[in-house]
Amino acid sequence: MLKSMILLAQIVMPALVKSQSLNDTVKLNLQDVITIAKAHSTAAVQAATIRENQYWQYKTFKSNYSPQLMLDGTLPQFSKTNIPVVQPDGTVQFKPVINDNSQLNLGLTQNIALTGGQLFLGSNVLRFSDFNSKQTSYNGNPLIIGLNQPLFAFNALAWDKKIEPLRYEESQRKYNEDIELVGRDASELFFSLLIAQINKDIASKNLLNNQTIYKIGEGKAALGRLSKDELLRLKLGVLNAEKAVAQANVEAETSDLQLKSFIGFAANNQIQLILPENLLTFEVDKEVAIQQAKNNRQKAIEFKRALLEADKDIAKAKGENGLKVNLYGTFGLTNVADQLPGIYNNAKDQQEIRLGFQIPILDWGRSASRIKTAQSNRKLVEATIKQAEINFEQEIYTTLRQLEMIKQQMQTNSEANHTANERFEIAKKRYLLNDLSITDLNIALQEKDQARRDYIFSLKSFWNAYFNLRVLTLYDFVTNKKINGNF
User: Fold this and answer.
1) Residues 103-127: what's their mean pLDDT?
2) Rounded CA gap, 109 and 147, in Å?
3) Per-residue model confidence (pLDDT) at position 59
4) Rounded Cα–Cα distance for residues 41 and 261 (Å)
5) For the residues 115-126, what does the mean pLDDT come to?
6) Are 253 and 268 a contacting pair, CB within 8 Å?
7) Domain harbouring 16, CATH code
8) How far apart, in whole angstroms, are the C-alpha atoms of residue 416 and residue 333?
9) Are 292 and 216 contacting, i.e. CB atoms less than 8 angstroms apart?
10) Which of 82, 105, 246, 472 is deepest in the core (most CB within 10 A)?
11) Same domain as 200, residue 144
12) How far apart are CA 269 and CA 177, in angstroms?
């Protein structure tokens, strides 16, 4: 289905470009407008850009768990200055020095998600040159292996590993929702223009009918068969019809520009919309709709992520406010030489281990307050999510009830539209035969127009409810398939 929709957009858009040069009218049905909007509208481009941004953020997150290789250094660090030198008798003399310190470090680091620590492997070399004594020496560590491990601390890496994949999955679902929202918004604008075009057509036909009736009325008045008052009423009907045509033209032009702007059409192109009277037939089980919404929508992931983030805040408050211990240790080789290769010959081993700690003794309840605040926020998030889940399901139930009610009204409105049209034609013939008053004719005209509008509005309500159901569940109940917004 996606391939056919993309193909349709590829066919319609070139045809539009060609018609723009010819200034022709393009006929579009509802599916045409939605397909073009999903492929070319600014809203669709924004949704795709946001999804792409989330993808690269997720790639950045994953890189935190991969080895990082880095080369850094200082080449050179030249210095020519005077430095204070303390003499044996305690006095200070300033001695001129001219030297260069160059350093090169190559390091490989690996974060440990399970413990929150970091393993590192490195090698470095330092070159020192004294230009006064014309001496050069090298110091280096051919190999260093080390561990930097916080103990009893908050482990951000472990929590991110739980939360960030959910955030990424949430962004993918949100993109699908955003694309369906584009379709729903396109449907709204489609019907706004369609209703405006139909109102324009009704106004034009009414003007023609009123002009015809007025001309007949003038003939009757000339024969003395129509009073001056009735003739003036007929003339007033023509004037009101002219005002209705002018107003309908303005509304149609406004709706036309809004739809073109949304789907990316040029303003000089003419669009004629096709009435979507062929309704879709499908059945929706409420429980299936709820389950599909939970499986497919962003909200379901958002609820889970929000709870995890609240738990993360509690763990962070506890980890940062209690006993802090950090274990640091290295093992490696070191050497000093007059020439660079010499530092790699007969290198001596070196070790370093350090255990640091920090214990809060008196903080006036600050640590406890932070933990209580995080726990309170967690309760608030949980309560908010429970209410949101209720609203989540209620919105779907409401949409399904509306859809069923609209389906029932469709047949009635269709029959009323046909009946009102037939009645008006009969009323017009009776009026021409002097068998009906102008008041009854106007009533028949108003009923015809209202029945037509009611029918169009019921069509609009059906399609809007259908597209809203797609947004709420991200499921197509016509094909019984999950909706994927990838274009």
Assistant:
1) 93
2) 10
3) 94
4) 8
5) 93
6) no
7) 1.20.1600.10
8) 94
9) no
10) 472
11) no
12) 30
Question: For residue 46, what pLDDT band results from cuts at 50, 70 and 90?
Answer: very high
Task: Render pLDDT for 210-231 as a digit per residue (tens, 0 to 9).
Answer: 888 888 888 888 888 778 888 8
Average pLDDT, the chain: 87
SS3 of 246, please? Answer: helix
Amino acid occupying residue 216 = I
38 in the same domain as 105 = no
What's the structural domain count of the chain?
2
- Structure tokens of 266? 């040029």
**CB-CB neighbours of 68 under 10 Å:** 13
Q: Give the global pTM.
A: 0.78
Same domain (yes/no): 145, 165: no
Which of 366, 226, 384, 381 lies closest to 310, judged by CA? 381
Give pLDDT tens digits for 75-95.
Answer: 888 888 888 989 888 899 998
Q: What is the pLDDT of residue 34?
A: 93
The Cα 152–Cα 117 span in angstroms is 11
Strand segments, DSSP code E, in 152-237 are none
Q: Inform me whether the pLDDT recorded for 9 exceeds 50.
A: no
Is 263 inside any structural domain? yes
Distance CA 446, CA 427 (A): 12
Whether the ω angle into residue 165 lies within 30 degrees of 0, i.e. cis, is no
Token couple for 358 = 């920090």
8 A C-beta contact, residue 164 and residue 296 = no
> Are residues 397 and 477 located together in one domain of the fold?
yes
